[in-house]
Design brief:
With 130 residues, the chain is an alpha+beta fold. 25% of the residues lie in helices and 37% in strands. The strands form 2 sheets. The protein has a 5-stranded antiparallel beta sheet, with helices on one face.
C-alpha cells in the first residue's frame, strides 16, 4: 500500500481532485512498484528492448477527494494476457478507510524499435506477479 497526499496542484478550482490526477497517481504507484521490484522505469526506457504504453484507462470516483486528503492506494494485478496486462488501483481515505476511487489501467508490451506488440518477457512477467 502506498500513501499519497492530495496537493493543491492535484485539485481544480473547487478544491476537488482534478479528474486526470487520480490516474496520474495510479501511474506513479506503478512506477514506484517497479522501482521497489528492482525494475526501475529508467532501466525499461534506457536499457530495455520493450515499452509498456497505456492503452486503456477506466476510473470511478466514488466520494469527494479534496485537497490535503491522505489517500492509501492498493495495487493489484487483475489480468495478464500474452502481450498486455491490467492493474487495478483502489483509493481509500486514510482515516476512515473509505473507498473513494478506483482506477483500472491496461498496458501493452511493444518492441521499442518496431512498436509492434510482443509477448510479455518472462523476467517482466515475474515482476508483475511479485
Amino acid at each position: 500500500m502506498v500513501k499519497k497526499i492530495v496537493r493543491m496542484g492535484d485539485t481544480d478550482a473547487t478544491g476537488q481532485i482534478y479528474f486526470s490526477n487520480l490516474q496520474k497517481m495510479a501511474v506513479e504507484v506503478f512506477e514506484e512498484f517497479l522501482d521497489s521490484a528492482g525494475y526501475p522505469v529508467s532501466k525499461l526506457l534506457l536499457e530495455g528492448v520493450f515499452l509498456c504504453p497505456i492503452v486503456r484507462v477506466e476510473a470511478d470516483y466514488l466520494a469527494p477527494i479534496q485537497i490535503c486528503d491522505i489517500l492509501e492506494i492498493e495495487r493489484s494485478l487483475v489480468h495478464v494476457g500474452n502481450s498486455s496486462f491490467t492493474m487495478h488501483y483502489s483509493f481509500y481515505k486514510e482515516f476512515k478507510r473509505v473507498l473513494v476511487g478506483r482506477v483500472k489501467i491496461t498496458q501493452v508490451v511493444i518492441c521499442k524499435k518496431t512498436r509492434q506488440s510482443l509477448t510479455i518477457p518472462e523476467e517482466f512477467m515475474k515482476v508483475l506477479h511479485s
